[in-house]
Amino acid sequence: MSDEPREEPRDGSRPPEHLAGLPGMDLVRRTLAEAREAARSQGKDIGRQQRAPLPGRVTGRRRRWSGPGPDHRDPQPLDDAAADLAQRRGWTARVAEGSVFARWAALVGDDIAQHAHPTALRDGVLAIAAESTAWATQLRMMQAQLLAKIAAAVGDGVVTAVKISGPVAPSWRKGPRHIRGRGPRDTYG
């Protein structure tokens, strides 16, 4: 280094004796290292950067700066934001029930979805309408597999039982009122 005399600090402060011989940045680094060590000995952790809170989590302190890491203010994927909103509002069970109808083909497969569709979900009982009696019988035999697939996709307890019905036979009723009996076929005799 140079042999030029050092400039005295203007405020009259001098570094401690053991640091007096260090030039510029070395003095700053050494002083900072000693300050950190003193803070650690008092139980404080200084010098570590704090991580940004994960999306959807609330921490006790509010961050007042922006940094290179992820932040709760960053744009979030829509499905994550919707799931977080549903959880905060207590809609999780209703969303799971709705996903049974919305994702029916993905839950049970395309073949079953072409021949049967869900009609209602009340108190954990899913009503399924099949297009033929053969499909209704087939679905009744694989009822346990259907429940397992649905539980794996939307969660346990959303659908607890399945009620499968076949097609409805044509009716002879005409109009809103009806009288019990054979109807028009008994007028000939």
Keywords:
mainly alpha; three-stranded mixed sheet
Helices and strands, with pairings:
Blueprint: H1 24-41, H2 78-89, H3 92-102, H4 104-108, H5 110-115, E1 116-122, E2 125-130, H6 133-141, H7 143-154, E3 161-165
Parallel strand pairs: 2-3
Antiparallel strand pairs: 1-2
Helix content: 25-40%
- Amount of beta strand: 5-15%
Distance between the termini: 129 Å
Order of helices and strands: HHHHHEEHHE
Largest sheet properties: 3 strands, mixed
Q: Average pLDDT across residues?
A: 78
Spatial strand order of the main sheet: 1-2-3
- Rg from C-alpha positions? 37 Å
Q: What structural class should be given to the helix and strand makeup?
A: mainly alpha
Number of strands: 3
Number of helices: 7
Overall morphology: rod-shaped
Stretches where pLDDT is under 50 for at least 5 consecutive residues are none
Region (Disordered): 1-24, 36-79
Family: Belongs to the UPF0232 family.
Biased composition (Basic and acidic residues): 7-17, 36-48
InterPro entries: DciA-like, UPF0232_actinobac
How would you describe this protein?
It comes from Mycolicibacillus koreensis. It holds the Pfam family DciA. The mean pLDDT is 78. A three-stranded mixed sheet has the order 1-2-3. The chain is mostly helical and 189 residues long. Helices cover 39% and strands 10% of the residues. The radius of gyration is 37 Å and the shape is rod-shaped. It has a domain at 109-169. The chain has helices at residues 24-41, 78-89, 92-102, 104-108, 110-115, 133-141, 143-154; strands spanning 116-122, 125-130, 161-165.
